[in-house]
C-alpha cells in the first residue's frame, strides 16, 4: 500500500474503542519509545476539558473528554508510523479514508488545543544566552538570561539578577519577550 507521504508533522485523529482513549495513549507512548519512533510521532493527546461538578454540596473539578472515542496524534505519516499506530490495541483506525489518513487543518488543531489550554507557542525566536523580559508571573518585569530552552514543554530556564545574586527561574514561552 502506498500512502501519499507527508514529510512534515501534522495533527491526525484516530478512532478508538469508547473508554479506551487513555489506554490507547499509554500503549502508543510505550510503542513510540520501544520502537524508536520519537522522530515520527511527537504527541499523543486525549482531548479533555476541566469542568466543575457539584456533588453532595461539594464542588469538584473533573476532566471530561471533549471527543469520546478519539485520540489526537502529532506525527509524520510514513509507512512505518502509520502501521505502528494502526496496529496498536484499541485503535480502530485513522479518521479519513482507510488508505490515507487525513490531517486536521492547522486551524482545527489550534482550536482543539486552545480549548484544552494547550495553545502555547512551540517555537521561539531566542537562543541560549539571549536576554528576555519576563512579562508575567512571579518574575514579571525582570530581565532573564536564557540557560536552557525546552521546546517539548514550551518553557525556558534562565537566571535573573535578584538582590545582587543570580536566581534560577523557569518561564513559559508566552511569559517572555525578546529584548
UniProtKB/TrEMBL annotation:
Domain KOW, residue spans: 125-152
BP terms from Gene Ontology: DNA-templated transcription elongation; DNA-templated transcription termination; regulation of DNA-templated transcription elongation; transcription antitermination
InterPro entries named among the record's database cross-references: KOW, NGN, NGN-like_dom, NGN_dom_sf, NusG-like, Rib_uL2_dom2, Transcrpt_antiterm_NusG, Translation_prot_SH3-like_sf
Keywords noted in UniProt: Transcription, Transcription antitermination, Transcription regulation, Transcription termination
CC terms in the record's Gene Ontology section: cytosol
Job of this protein: Participates in transcription elongation, termination and antitermination.
Name of the protein in its database record: Transcription termination/antitermination protein NusG
Organism: Megamonas rupellensis
Taxonomic path: Bacteria, Bacillati, Bacillota, Negativicutes, Selenomonadales
Amino acid at each position: 500500500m502506498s500512502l501519499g507521504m507527508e514529510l512534515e508533522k501534522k495533527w491526525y485523529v484516530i478512532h478508538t474503542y469508547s473508554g479506551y482513549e487513555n489506554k490507547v495513549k499509554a500503549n502508543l507512548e510505550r510503542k513510540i519509545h520501544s520502537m524508536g519512533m520519537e522522530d515520527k510521532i511527537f504527541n499523543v493527546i486525549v482531548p479533555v476539558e476541566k469542568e466543575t461538578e457539584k456533588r453532595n454540596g461539594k464542588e469538584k473539578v473533573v476532566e471530561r473528554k471533549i471527543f469520546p472515542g478519539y485520540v489526537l496524534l502529532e506525527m509524520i505519516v510514513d509507512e512505518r508510523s502509520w502501521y505502528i499506530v494502526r496496529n496498536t490495541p484499541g485503535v480502530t483506525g485513522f479518521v479519513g479514508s482507510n488508505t490515507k489518513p487525513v490531517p486536521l487543518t492547522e486551524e482545527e488543531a489550534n482550536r482543539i488545543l486552545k480549548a484544552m489550554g494547550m495553545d502555547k507557542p512551540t517555537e521561539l525566536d531566542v537562543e541560549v544566552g539571549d536576554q528576555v523580559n519576563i512579562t508575567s508571573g512571579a518574575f514579571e518585569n525582570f530581565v532573564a538570561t536564557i540557560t536552557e530552552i525546552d521546546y517539548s514543554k514550551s518553557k525556558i530556564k534562565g537566571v535573573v539578577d535578584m538582590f545582587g545574586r543570580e536566581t534560577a527561574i523557569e518561564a513559559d514561552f508566552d511569559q517572555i519577550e525578546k529584548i
